[in-house]
Amino acid sequence: MNRLISQQHRIRSLGEEMSSLLLAYQLRGKKVVVIGAGEVAAGRVKACYDADASIIEVYGKDVHPDILALEEDGDRTIEIFEGAVRPENVDLEGVSLAFTAIDDRKLSAEFVQLFRNKNIMCNAADIPELCDFYFGSTINRGPLQVLVSTNGNAPRLARRVRQELEHTVDQLGMEGAFAKVGKLREELRKMTVTGEEGYDPQTVKKRMKWMSHICDKFTFSQMAALTDKDIGKLLALYPQKVSYSDIRPS
Amino acid sequence: MNRLISQQHRIRSLGEEMSSLLLAYQLRGKKVVVIGAGEVAAGRVKACYDADASIIEVYGKDVHPDILALEEDGDRTIEIFEGAVRPENVDLEGVSLAFTAIDDRKLSAEFVQLFRNKNIMCNAADIPELCDFYFGSTINRGPLQVLVSTNGNAPRLARRVRQELEHTVDQLGMEGAFAKVGKLREELRKMTVTGEEGYDPQTVKKRMKWMSHICDKFTFSQMAALTDKDIGKLLALYPQKVSYSDIRPS
């Protein structure tokens, strides 16, 4: 393993092209540990909180106000262990994901070793060669999430890529489209419910086929512009094929 | 843990809004296990191979030709264990990431339990409630990678989101821009090399500042259109502030 890690480091130093496996990691039901309680740590806590982590344990002193605010307002558990950070005081039992966000690089590396011993995936702030993963720039619009990674190349450009993609997402009204399609699917489900909880496979299949048809047929802007009345008109036509002119005659 | 997992399942069933932590996972120096050797498994192997996994172990029978082709051509190690898949035959020592891609759901769940016992992050094809992560739709353009996740909402729309973002990426010439900026940075590094390997902090800082300036000042299309001659002109102006008209007078 040591050989492989040093190889990785060598390759990074030479600036060769890197590639990542982009993942949508699920934090529900999982426990996260954050070593450090400053501004960077607060960003990690917020990201994990927004991704529905069940338990977030924070170890550090001078706890950032954003962390305290989440601890108070939150409907999920943030546990703060205030004080100087010592490896022997950190409980890694049942932990799925870990972060270090402290200035002491040696201590940070020590924690990473502890995480690795337990096969806990981790990110060490400012020490890329010790990271199992990076964050990149993200766009969040309702259920739609977009990650932009440039694998360490031109971080300044990465931000601009994100801005351009954000512009496309917003200009086309994608968030609204997802909301309306979600609503349409929900109403359709209520209307066609059969058997216990409506999970009759034939009905589900028929519903999915029709929803796919709508998703293919309407532009994002058309979907985003659907009113409750439009949704009613569409449902009245189920399971026929429809087009935008059926609900908005030109 | 069981309580948490069943809670997760309940929330999914109700179709409430989900959120993921989007990550750029690093596979260099890591070992991956893929249970199954069919078409879906081949997709997993390819994704991990492209993301520079060091060792990929594949367990299954009737191995898909794409896996065999990668095994032969590859400069990295793909090990195929051909035959009926049995948990007792799979070695999970040192494994960072695991996949199941088999039709037998019961066997798949059995493997997931083994992975969890060793804290190995996993994805079970077609069994979302057993997945630690999902893939989503991705765009790969040189060092630029984009992940689109809709957290299970309207998968048909997810594909269209990806297509629209792909259009933006390609229309603005982002891949070319990254290539040219990479080239400029490389030439600049050669030109300004100082000390051992050119890592004098002052020089590095000055270079980075100038590169950021260029990245902010030029559009993607302007960057993508830079010729070797243009790059020479830019370098001759270092470390002055420059604008596009300095190299392409209108």
What is the CATH level 1 assignment of the largest domain in chain A? Alpha Beta
Oligomeric category: homodimer
Structural class of chain A: alpha/beta
Indicate how many domains the architecture of chain A comprises. Answer: 2
Q: Could you tell me the number of beta strands of chain A?
A: 9
Contiguous low-pLDDT stretches of chain A (5 residues minimum) are 1-15
Instruction: State which percent range the strand residues of chain A make up.
Output: 15-25%
Main sheet record of chain A: 5 strands, parallel
CATH topology of the largest domain in chain A, by name, is Rossmann fold
Separation of the first and last Cα atoms of chain A:
66 Å
Domain Siroheme synthase central (chains A, B): 141-167
Organism (chains A, B): Trichomonascus ciferrii
Catalytic activity (chains A, B): precorrin-2 + NAD(+) = sirohydrochlorin + NADH + 2 H(+)
Enzyme class (chains A, B): oxidoreductase
Could you describe the 3D structure shown?
- Chain A has 250 residues and is an alpha/beta fold.
- Chain A has 2 domains: 105 residues, NAD(P)-binding Rossmann-like Domain (Rossmann fold, 3-Layer(aba) Sandwich), CATH 3.40.50.720; 73 residues.
- Chain A has a 5-stranded parallel sheet, with helices on both faces. A two-stranded antiparallel ribbon of chain A has the order 8-9.
- In chain A, β8 and β9 form a beta hairpin.
- In chain A, α2 packs parallel to α3 and α6 packs antiparallel against α7.
- Chain A starts with a helix and ends with a helix.
- The N terminus of chain A is likely disordered.
